[in-house]
Specification:
Helix content is 54%, strand content 8%. It is built from five helices and four strands; from the N terminus they run H-H-H-E-E-H-H-E-E. A hairpin with a 5-residue loop joins strand 1 (84-85) and strand 2 (91-94). Helix 3 (55-82) crosses helix 5.
């Protein structure tokens, strides 16, 4: 190895080390680096925040969203078929009964109910539903 190759080799090592230090929070230059990162960090109020720029990832996300929505619609149909109408005209079913019926279809009942409540499709008391403890909790379909 001649002297010019050695110089190039060590210059490359220095450059690689400097690049590595740019990502190292323990580097002496981290405050400067972090301030630069803050300027390029996504902002939550940005209209594109949380939206993938990768087309395949975006398609998977849309497909998953549609799949979950279809499962929620299926759940609502099961409630409509097996629920009862109360004196106010609201369709409801007890969680225990719904759990017995729907558990044969899917094991994601509680997650689907939480998602449906978040979307304003159903209502029930409490933050979470547990088998046995919450068997008598009414799940109501909202109009």
């Amino acid at each position: 190895m001649n002297s010019s190759n050695r110089i190039k080799y060590f210059d490359d090592l220095v450059r690689l080390n400097q690049e590595k230090n740019l990502r190292n929070p323990f580097s002496s230059n981290w405050e400067l680096i972090r301030s630069n990162l803050d300027s390029i960090r996504p902002k939550k109020d940005d209209t594109t925040y949380g939206i993938s720029i990768n087309e395949k990832t975006r398609k998977r996300g849309v497909d998953a969203h549609n799949h979950i929505n279809n499962e929620i619609l299926e759940l609502l149909e099961v409630i409509r078929q097996n629920g009862t109408i109360d004196s106010y005209g609201s369709l409801s079913i007890q969680f225990g009964r719904l759990f017995q019926i729907y558990n044969k279809i899917s094991n994601k009942l509680v997650g689907l109910l939480l998602r449906a409540r978040k979307n304003g499709l159903v209502s029930f008391s409490g933050e979470m539903l547990y088998q046995t403890r919450d068997d008598n909790v009414l799940i109501k379909i909202l109009n």
